[in-house]
Amino acid sequence: MRYFLEVAYEGTNYHGWQSQNNTPKTIQAIIEDGLSKILRTQTPIVGSGRTDTGVHCKKQFAHFDTENEVNVDDLKYRMNSFLPPQIAISTIFPVVETAHARFDAFLRTYHYHVVLEKNPFLINHAHFHRKGLNDTSFEKMNKAAEYLSKHTNFESFSKIKTQVNHFECDISTAIWTKEEGSQADYWRFTISANRFLRGMVRAVVGSLFLVGEGKIEINDFEKIILDKNRKSAGFSVPSNGLFLVDVEYPKQIFL
Fold first, then answer.
1. Domains, in order of start, for the chain
2. d(C-alpha 55, C-alpha 105), whole Å
3. What mean pLDDT is predicted for residues 171-191?
4. Among 5, 21, 47, 220, whose Cα sits 20 to 30 Å from the Cα of 59?
């Protein structure tokens, strides 16, 4: 049988999602270790995507297979007892045998959090941007972000050494907002797409900062996209402000 896990994690002290040969401290490796010990058989998982070192996640999905039906409530309880405090299983549920956590996902959403005033309580969960941004910057960055939904090739925002067949992404949402109930110095960038390239969101935000700081004009942001060259884009912002917040699937995969 095939099951989906819904996972949340605080990624500060982990080397990203994907298992790596040189470190056991990845989210995938730790979850696989727990599943394998509890189910008493080697149990690999396949995630909806990978997140880099230090990136957080409010909602990630992964699938795994078992020969026999499992008690999902009991497995969730035992997994959460096994996992460290920074990783939690939100739910476990059966899906159709052909469901795939990565390939069936049709929409992914990220948030990037920015604070303009130093806040020690947000040091691991928001990027402190020290200077150069103000209310005018906010409007300019939103204008520039509108170009993202008008194009599909985002090679300029992809890591150079990456194994992908193409750089096409369909971005449906890209907008800056001020956090509800917060002071005006706490901003959030929301971006949704069918897929993302490695390092893409952080490079997009870094390039939008160039617009907000007045280092490039709003229409120069579109030129960066059209250039299809990572060297044309801005710097990659730190990972601490980035959260994967949602992954969506078609209803027909659920039982």
1. 2-103 (3.30.70.580), 107-246 (3.30.70.660)
2. 20
3. 86
4. 21
How far apart CA 102 and CA 14 sit, in angstroms, is 21
- Size of the chain, expressed as the number of residues it contains: 255
Helix or strand (DSSP H, E) at 115: strand 107-115
Q: Which of 52, 104, 170, 185 is catalytic?
A: 52
DSSP letters of 160-226? Answer: SS---S--B--EEEEEEEEPTTS-TTEEEEEEEES---TTHHHHHHHHHHHHHTTSS-HHHHHHHHH
Q: pLDDT-derived band of residue 180, with 50, 70 and 90 as boundaries?
A: low
The amino acid that residue 83 corresponds to is L
Asked whether the beta carbons of 221 and 211 are under 8 A apart, the reply is yes
Tally of helices (H runs) and strands (E runs) in the chain: 5, 9
Tell me the two tokens of residue 136: 């005018």
Q: Is 227 a catalytic residue?
A: no
Global confidence as pTM: 0.95
The DSSP symbol for 254 reads B
User: Coil, helix or strand for 48?
Assistant: coil
Distances in Å between the Cα of 216 and the Cα atoms of 103, 146, 212, 223 are 37, 16, 8, 10
pLDDT tens-digit readout, 54-111: 999 999 999 999 999 999 999 999 999 999 999 999 999 999 999 999 999 999 999 9
pLDDT at 183 over 70: no
| pLDDT in the model for residue 179 | 80
Place of tokens 């929409």: 107
Using alpha carbons, list the distances in angstroms from residue 27 to 31, 161, 249: 6, 23, 22
